[in-house]
Design a protein that fits this description.
The complex is a heterodimer of chains A (about 375) and B (about 475). By secondary structure, chain A is α/β, with parallel strands linked by helices. Helix content of chain A is about 45%, strand content about 10%. In chain A, strand 5, helix 12 and strand 6 form a beta-alpha-beta unit. In chain A, helix 11 crosses helix 12 and helix 16 packs across helix 17. Chain A is globular, with a radius of gyration of 20 Å. Chain B has about 475 residues and is an alpha+beta fold. Chain B folds into three domains: about 100 residues, Uridine Diphospho-n-acetylenolpyruvylglucosamine Reductase, domain 2; about 130 residues, 2-Layer Sandwich (Uridine Diphospho-n-acetylenolpyruvylglucosamine Reductase, domain 3), CATH 3.30.465.10; about 200 residues, Vanillyl-alcohol Oxidase, Chain A, domain 3, CATH 3.40.462.40. Chain B is about 35% helix and about 20% strand. In chain B, strands 16-13-15-14-18-19-17 form a seven-stranded antiparallel sheet, with helices on both faces. In chain B, strands 5, 6, 7, 10, 11 and 12 form a six-stranded antiparallel sheet that branches. In chain B, strands 1-2-4-3 form a four-stranded mixed sheet. In chain B, strand 10 and strand 11 form a beta hairpin. The radius of gyration of chain B is 22 Å and the shape is globular. The relative contact order of chain B is 0.12. The chains are: A alpha/beta (about 375), B alpha+beta (about 475). At the A-B interface, strand 1, strand 2, helix 3 and helix 4 of A face helix 2, helix 4 and helix 11 of B.
Chain lengths: ~375, ~475
């Protein structure tokens, strides 16, 4: 368990340093580790983390509070894995290492850091990491008569339900206006991803089984999410954790919308704006969904899509890192501010993304840095032009 | 707040955010990319300016504290890790400013912690080009590349990376700051390496950091070529491939060249490039560049030279991959479990078949220590060489060893040392020296050379604090 479980990934590293700092214009790579770029020391980048993990595995080093804290600074954005020059089978998978590492820390009773314990207690009580009353989860759908059973299920997730309810509303509107009959769960619970990344995978598993049962009960054959975290959890983690293939398909809203564009089912109004697109880590690098959101944006008449210098597989993380934002808000926002600057440098008036958590994070960073750029989710953009 | 006695004085110099003595932070920088066993320092400090480096070294002299210097940490010989545990580790990666790209003098100056990738981005942005070197390549730092000399991409054109260095700013172990090359005078500026006295730039290149901390590096700029052509020549014997390689090198028109020798190594290449004919024992891959009008003619001349030795031409693949990428591809095959130890050193090209065959023989006697590649079932090592200027190659042997159980790993490291010793005794000139080659290279020095080198060291480093142990200096 713990680091032992990911020993192969740790020992494959031959310490070339690509993950420490690399600018390689030919591949569009302009720096690699957002945390290392902020905090500068090597124990914040993958090569350094791997050496620390080795020292722990080999008994040369013992845990300290600061070491535990440093493990929780990783955004698990996966850009280091992307640039790792090893072949796929040997690539150093730091997100995987970090997840196992945090599990080990929790198993040993050394973590998570105090600020993240609240996420666990909140989620146990209210089924969302923010501790907001569970009765408010479907507040965004007030005044609608969305059924609780159906072939297509919209899984809004905690962020769109509580923090960015306009995204859930837009998703609902877009689905309806596209003629999709969809349902929502009577009692949707957190997808479990924050707990999995917090080191509390056992708690995460509880939500997995509960959500799987609820989705089955709703009779859904297809689940659509607006959150790439929920998407990844449902699509990859759930089958892995339950050990069986699920009875439903999972799609991210951007895939769903791109399909509607292909089928000519979306009739967009003109919008004369310059926009840029931020690839969320969980949708981009983790799920390899790069082109579908762009296809939707470019299908809107009048829109000019200007790419940021770092895009697709090289996109800079928003800094949220699932648990990094609540644990280390300043670090997290500094990373986000770099991304906002990059977006602004394109001359865009709107920064579009496909993740409610990225929206919260980037919007906060735009306001903190007093940058005049609107941050919205793709589904909000689409709702605006339908 | 740290607990080490030097924490506060160092924090006073660089600020508390740039110094740490956290044990786990020390483990993150205890080793480089090689096989050599590492040691942890007591404290890591990250200066941003030359003046800060100078103050750190003055403090180290006052307290008689040993200092080890680390750049990108992507070298192989363990030079950026303390020879024995303890001391101060200067991590230069926050010295990351590009000072000047001068299009009039065709020279670029950057702080030592700037990576090749960062410099290249700026230089390419101006429509220019420069030599790109270092094992970490895009992530290798200029300072590390100077201290280690380093083989660059385009070694057949540029030679070692050090040959592209014009001027240096160096902080001597005493803390004194000097400038070399045309910048040695108060009126010269940074544009040329030679003149104005002896080549002190050269004195610091390849010194493994024992003579001073490089803080600023000036390198030569070039215009990018109009066109590039690639070819892969296959030979039935190592000897014919080597002879052809020598003749090709003598033309002085090759930009980059990569030679793979031995049936085992060629077979590994053939898995990825099936066009390589059965029975090939040597591959010679070349890249030439030049203007559009003449490059085709030049290539025809080179093809003729290769055919004279019986070459089969299979086209631009795999030669099209930049040399380093090719090696990187192989590295990913042959490296696993962190016990991969490339061995590099310059040898005359004619020696290649003898050295390569003898190394293969040594490896064949230690099969139990060699890692088996999970995807091919082949033992992990590659016998290769990179073309330098003239008929000289950088012999680059890449073995990878089993890691479990730990006793085997230790045996593998010992065997690796045997290989290094053998290659040193073949008259190889290593550029990565560090801790790995020190015990084998130093006894081979002519005594007068070593005496002069040691006298220089004692003069600039009376307390012998900097990069202790390298070249057996203590």
């Amino acid at each position: 368990m713990g680091l032992e479980k990911v020993k192969d990934h740790i020992y494959h590293c031959f310490r070339c340093g690509y993950c420490r700092e690399m600018i390689r214009p030919q591949t569009g790579t302009y720096l690699v580790c957002p945390v290392r770029e902020e905090l500068r020391f090597e124990h914040y980048d993958t090569r350094g983390r791997v050496l620390i993990a080795r020292a722990l595995l080999e008994g040369n080093l013992k845990y300290s509070d600061k070491l535990v804290e440093s493990v929780y600074t990783c955004c698990a954005c996966g850009l280091c894995k992307e640039v790792c020059p090893l072949f796929d089978w040997a690539k150093v998978d730091m997100p995987k290492i970090i997840r196992a590492w945090r599990e080990e820390i929790v198993d040993k009773g050394l973590g998570p850091p105090e600020r993240l314990k609240e996420i666990n207690t909140n989620t146990e009580k209210t089924y969302n990491p923010f501790g907001t009353d569970k009765a408010e989860r479907l507040k965004w759908s007030a005044g609608t008569d969305i059924p609780r059973k159906g072939d297509v299920l919209y899984f809004a997730g905690c962020y769109a339900s509580y923090k960015e309810p306009q995204i859930a509303k837009s998703a609902s509107n877009v689905l309806r206006r596209s003629g999709v009959n969809f349902a929502v769960l009577e009692e949707e619970k957190c997808c479990g991803l924050p707990q999995m990344w917090n080191g509390e995978s056992k708690l995460g598993e509880k939500f997995v089984s509960s959500n799987v049962a609820a989705i089955k009960e709703a009779g859904a054959k297809e689940v659509v999410t607006t959150c790439p975290g929920c998407y990844m959890a449902l699509k990859s983690d759930y089958p892995e954790m339950t050990g069986k293939k699920l009875d439903f398909e999972v799609h991210h809203m951007s895939e769903f919308l791109a399909d509607l564009v292909d089928k000519g089912k979306l009739d967009f109004k003109r919008l004369d704006k310059k926009v840029t697109y931020h690839d969320p880590c969980h949708l981009g690098r983790y799920s390899k969904i790069y082109e579908q959101p762009r296809k939707v944006i470019e299908a809107i008449p009048g829109i000019e899509l200007a790419e940021m210098k770092r895009n697709r597989a090289n996109a800079w993380c928003c800094g949220s890192g699932i648990v990094v934002a609540p644990a280390f808000p300043n670090l997290s926002l500094s990373i986000a501010e770099k991304r906002i600057k990059e977006a602004k440098d394109t001359g865009a008036e709107i920064l579009v993304t496909t993740c409610p958590s990225c929206v919260t994070q980037l919007d906060l960073a735009a306001r903190r840095s007093r940058t005049d750029i609107e941050v919205i989710d793709l589904v909000d953009l689409v709702a605006r032009v339908l | 707040m740290g607990t080490h006695a030097l924490y506060e004085p160092l924090a006073e110099i660089v600020g508390s955010k740039r110094v740490t003595d956290e044990k786990f932070a020390l483990w993150a920088v205890y080793i480089d990319s090689g096989i050599e066993r590492g040691n942890i320092a007591d404290i890591v400090v990250k200066p941003q300016t030359t003046e800060e480096v100078s103050r750190i070294l003055k403090l180290a002299n006052q307290t008689k504290t040993k200092v080890t210097v680390r750049g990108g940490g992507s070298g192989m010989p363990g030079g950026c890790s303390p020879s024995t545990p303890g001391g101060v580790l200067i991590d230069t990666t926050d010295m990351n400013k590009i000072v000047e790209v001068n299009e009039d003098t065709f020279a670029a100056t950057a702080q030592a912690g700037v990576t090749h990738g960062a410099l290249l981005e700026v230089i390419h942005g101006k429509g220019l080009d420069c030599c790109l070197g270092g094992h970490g390549i895009y992530s290798a730092t200029l300072g590390g590349s100077v201290a280690n000399l380093t083989y660059p991409i385009g070694g057949a054109r540029y030679g070692a990376f050090g040959e592209e260095v014009l001027c240096l700013e160096v902080v001597l172990p005493t803390g004194d700051i000097i400038r070399t090359g045309s910048d040695a005078t108060t009126v010269g500026g940074r544009f040329h390496r030679y003149g104005a006295g002896p080549d002190l730039t050269g004195m610091f290149i390849g010194d493994q950091g024992v003579l001073g901390v490089k803080t600023e590096v000036t390198i030569r700029l070039h215009l990018p070529p109009e066109a590039r052509e690639f070819e892969t020549y296959c030979f039935k014997t190592m000897e014919s491939g080597t002879k052809a390689a020598m003749d090709l090198q003598k033309t002085s028109v090759i930009y980059d060249g990569y030679i793979v020798v031995g049936r085992h190594s060629v077979k590994q290449m053939a898995i990825r490039y099936p066009a390589i004919p059965e029975g090939t024992e040597a591959l010679v891959m070349i890249c030439i560049d030049g203007d559009k009008e003449t490059i085709g003619h030049t290539k025809m001349k080179l093809d003729k030279i290769a055919k004279r030795e019986g070459a089969t031409l299979i086209g631009p693949e795999p030669a099209r991959s930049p040399t380093y990428d090719l090696m990187g591809d192989h590295a990913s095959k042959v490296r696993s479990y962190g016990v991969s130890g490339p061995i590099n050193g310059f040898i005359p090209t004619y020696k290649l078949p003898k050295v390569a065959r003898e190394v293969e023989e040594m490896i064949s006697q230690h099969q139990d220590l060699m890692l088996t590649q999970p995807d091919t079932g082949m033992k992990s090592f590659l016998n290769a060489a990179l073309m330098m200027k003239g008929p000289v190659v950088n012999y680059a042997m890449r073995p990878s060893f089993v890691s479990d159980p730990p006793e085997k790993r230790e045996q593998a490291v010992d065997f690796w040392h045997e290989l290094v010793k053998y290659i040193a005794n073949q008259g190889s000139c290593p550029y990565w020296i560090g801790k790995a080659w020190t015990p084998y290279l130093t006894p081979l020095y002519r005594k007068e050379y070593y005496a002069l080198f040691k006298a220089l060291k004692q003069n600039v480093d009376p307390n012998m604090i900097l990069n202790q142990g390298l070249f057996l200096f203590r």
